[in-house]
Amino acid sequence: MAAQNKSRAGGLHLWRNARLATMAEGVAGLGIVDKGAIAARDGLIVYAGPEADMPSALAQGAATTDCEGRWVTPGLIDCHTHLVHAGNRANEFEMRLAGATYEEVARAGGGIVSSVKSLRAASEDELVAQTLPRLDALMAEGVTTVEVKSGYGLDLGNERKSLRAARQLDKQRPVTVRTTFLGAHALPPEAKGDKDAFVDLVANTILPGIAAEGLADAVDGFCEGIAFSPEQIARVFDKAKALGLPVKLHADQLSNLHGAELAARYGALSADHLEYTDEAGAAAMAKAGTVATILPGAYYFIRETRKPPVGLFRQHGVKMAVATDNNPGTSPLTSLLLTMNMAATLFGLTVEECLAGTTREAARALGLLGQTGTLEAGKSADLAIWDIERPAELVYRMGFNPLHARIWRGQ
Ligand code: DI6
Ligand code: FE
C-alpha cells in the first residue's frame, strides 16, 4: 500500500454553488448558507459563506468545483473507536443468541481477553491490514478524522504495537488519526487478578514508555465494576497529567461509579457512554467543559435499557458528541451515519445534535476544535459533499450512503 502524501493540498481551491451547513458555533441551527462557497488555500479554509460576499480575488486562478447545489458539511469525525483490533467475536455473538450468559462466554475463553490474545498474536502489519477495511468503511461515509484507542495489548510491547499500527493508518490513508492510550481497559491474564499491581504497571511503566515515543495524543480508562475503580483510574490520570497528556474516560456505562465527576475533576476532554450518569455528574461535566460522548452502538448491541441522561445534558449545557465505539465485543459498528440514526431514534437527539455530535462536538472531544469540525476560515478544508435534499436525510436513512465526495485538507 503506497503511503499517502500527508501534506495539505497546495494552491487555491474553490467549491461553489453549494448549500453549506457550516456547524459554526454561536450561529442558529446548522449554520446554513443557501448559495454558499468555500475557498481554501494550501488546504486551509480562507472563506466559507455566501458566494455573493466572497472576495473576488479568491476566485481568480482557483481550481474550482461546481457543487451543483449539493449540501456540504464539515468532514465527519468519529471521536471514539477501538478500530485497531485483531479477529472478531462473532462466535460470542452466536453463543449469546443461543442463550449463553456473559459468564459462560467468558469461561469459554471469550470477552475482552480473547481480543487481547488475538491482538498479541498479530504483527503490527497484520493489525494495519485488518484495520484498513474498517477505516475505509468510515471514510466512505465522509469521515475525515478518527480517534483510535489501544487497550487490547495490555503490556508495553503490545500497547506500543497497537498505537504504532494506528499511526500507520494515518500514514496510509488521507485521514487524520488521533491516538488514545487505553492501558486501564481490562486485566490481562498474567496479572492474576491483581488490579492494583496492574494499575501500577500501567501508570509507572507502560504509559511513560508510550508517552516517551509520542505514541498517544490522550489517555483513557475504563471506570467500571468489571474494570477499574475511580481511585485506580485517578492514579493513571495523575501520571497522564504529569506527562502533559489530556484525559478522557469510559464512564458510567453499566453502573454509576461517578465516573463523570471523576472525568470532570481532571478536566477531561470527554466522558463517554454515561448511561448511568446522574445530575451531579452532568453538572460537573458542564462546569469542566467535558464533552459527553454518546455511544448508541454499544447500548444497542448489549441490549442495555438505561439511556444516557440527554435531558440533563441539555439542561446543564453539556456538549454532546456521537461516535461508533467500534470494537469487536460491544459495538462492531463502522457506520457513523447509522450511529446518528441510532442516537436520534434510541436517545431522542435532534438532527442538529446528531450533526454537531459528529462534527463540531466530536472535534471538541478530541481537543481539535481549533483545527477542524466546522466550515470556518482558519480550519482545515475537511469537507463532506452530499447528494441529499435536506440535512435530516443524513440522520434519517439506515444503511444508505449519500456521500458524493470527501475532501481532506483540501484534497
Ligand atoms: N467499554 C466497552 O463497551 C468496550 N470497552 C469498554 O471500555 C468493550 C470492549 C470489548 O468487549 O472488547
Ligand atoms: Fe469504547
Give an overview in words:
This protein is an alpha/beta fold. Helix content is about 35%, strand content about 20%. It is built from 15 helices and 15 strands. The protein has helices at about 90-95, 100-105, 110-120, 125-140, 155-170, 195-210, 230-240, 260-265, 280-290, 295-300, 310-315, 335-345, 350-355, 360-365, 395, and strands at about 10-20, 30-40, 45-50, 65, 70-75, 75-80, 145-150, 175-185, 220-225, 250, 270-275, 290-295, 320, 385, 405. The strands form two sheets. Strands 6-7-8-9-10-11-12-13 form an eight-stranded parallel β-sheet. α6 (about 195-210) runs parallel beside α7 (about 230-240). About 55% of the residues are buried.
Brief account:
The protein has 411 residues and is α/β, with parallel strands linked by helices. It has helices at residues 90-97, 102-107, 112-121, 124-139, 156-172, 195-212, 230-242, 259-265, 279-288, 296-301, 310-316, 336-347, 351-357, 360-365, 393-396; strands at 12-21, 32-41, 44-50, 63-66, 71-74, 76-78, 143-149, 176-184, 218-223, 248-251, 270-273, 291-294, 320-322, 383-386, 403-407. α8 (259-265) packs parallel to α9.
